[in-house]
Design a protein that fits this description.
Order of helices and strands: EEEHEEHHEHHEEEHEHEEEEHEEEH
Radius of gyration: 23 Å
Distance between the termini: 27 Å
Number of strands: 17
Number of helices: 9
Helix content: 25-40%
Number of domains: 3
Strand content: 15-25%
Bound molecules: iron/sulfur cluster
Largest sheet: 6 strands, mixed
Length: about 375
């Protein structure tokens, strides 16, 4: 991490847009290398980091999965692609010996024809074995599916979290705490130097009102420029409480704003532990497939202006704009898009692509390394 001279932070000499996207990528990069904050991960654990994942009505910015290292390795035999809820139902309950799928698998709570389709799909992907006996489809497992995720940690990235933004975020975090789908929730925000961080952090901290507004169960990370991964140094200002993921949670559906004009009642429903466990598994599977570098599927690495700001931080940068860019900017609708000249693909570059393809391969290699 360097400074452009005018005080603006840069990565690899490229100014950063002052938005959540680069902040989020850098937090992901930091978490991949340094999780958990202020502590050391036990040798028998590893982490998987992903971004923009969650359930239908809640998407977290950054997810850190703390995994059992041995079980994580066992998960690899099921391939790089995520197993969705239907496939998980088949793979997790497939028997050791041949059996009719309706005898072997628990009642799914939806029509069996969908289970039969999932059995075919699982067999096509090599996840189970399948055979036909008369008009019955039988299956047996190839491998036991491991429960490879120990803890799910959610981080909201809010680089510029002032008191009013904290109010809005507090409501969201209170819902997260009530539901208890993640083991921990954190907020990562830019350090302000208010001096409420851990001792020995050089006085870095966050705006004091954040400590009052955010629920005490949520942790707060003060993020500042440094020489750590992603060009960051991160101090835990407030440690979160572990949430009861294996107990029933409360989903807040509607919440009155209060005051003279709103006398409506709050609406909520319970989330049972089995539902929460299933959702945690599905989210973890999607995180396993996507990691946090999934933006590579959206940015125009095939544009002659595309650059990787820094192979370590892997932030997308644009030579035309002279700075790091967001995935939204660097999209198919960018008016400055220029295709790579065909000659780039043959002169000194591998036959299967030019610099853009090289950037894609680098991002893919880094994602694969995360799965090892
Ligand atoms: S010109 Fe547009 S498409 Fe090309 S790298 Fe820059 S932002 Fe991306």
């Amino acid at each position: 991490m360097t400074d452009a001279g005018d005080g603006a932070p840069t990565v690899g000499g490229w100014p950063l847009p002052d938005r959540e996207f680069p902040f989020e990528l850098r937090v992901c990069r930091w978490a991949e290398a340094c999780w958990p904050p202020g502590e050391t991960l036990p040798d028998d654990r590893t982490v998987v980091v992903a971004r923009q994942l969650g359930i239908r009505d809640r998407r977290w910015d950054t997810l850190v999965l703390e995994c059992d290292r041995a079980k994580f390795a066992q998960r690899a035999v099921f391939g790089e692609r995520a197993l969705d809820s239907d496939l998980l139902h088949v793979v997790r309950h497939a028997p050791a010996d041949w059996a009719w799928y309706r005898d072997a698998l628990p009642d799914p709570g939806y029509p069996w024809q969908y289970v039969r389709e999932a059995v075919h799909q699982a067999a096509d992907r090599g996840l189970i074995e399948k055979r036909k006996r008369g008009n019955r489809i039988e299956l047996r497992r190839r491998w036991r599916y491991p429960e490879w995720v120990e803890r799910v940690v959610a981080i909201e990235n809010k680089p510029d979290l002032d008191a009013s933004a904290a109010r809005a975020l507090a409501d969201q975090l209170e819902r997260d705490v009530a539901l208890g789908l993640a083991d921990e929730v954190w907020v990562a925000t830019r350090a302000t130097g208010d001096g409420n961080g851990d001792a020995g952090d050089g006085g870095r901290g966050v705006e004091p009102s954040l400590l009052e507004r955010l629920p005490v169960e949520a942790g707060i990370l003060a993020v500042h420029e440094g020489d750590g991964p992603g060009g960051l140094a991160v101090d835990p200002v407030w440690h979160p409480r572990s949430l009861a993921v294996d107990r029933p949670g409360t989903r807040i559906l509607d919440r009155p704003v209060g005051g003279d004009h709103d006398h409506s009642a709050a609406r909520f429903e319970y989330a049972d532990p089995a539902w929460k466990a299933a959702k945690r598994r599905e989210i973890s599977e999607r995180a396993y497939e996507r990691g946090w570098r999934g933006y590579r599927d959206h940015v125009r690495t095939d544009c002659r202006q595309f650059r990787l700001a820094d192979p370590g931080a892997t932030l997308p940068a644009c030579a035309a704009k002279g700075r790091c860019v967001t995935a939204r900017e660097c999209s198919g609708s960018c008016p400055e898009f220029e295709p790579e000249p065909p000659a780039w693909r043959t002169q000194g570059w591998p036959i299967d692509g030019g610099p853009g393809a090289g950037a894609m391969r680098l991002l893919a290699r880094q994602r694969d390394r995360q799965r090892e």
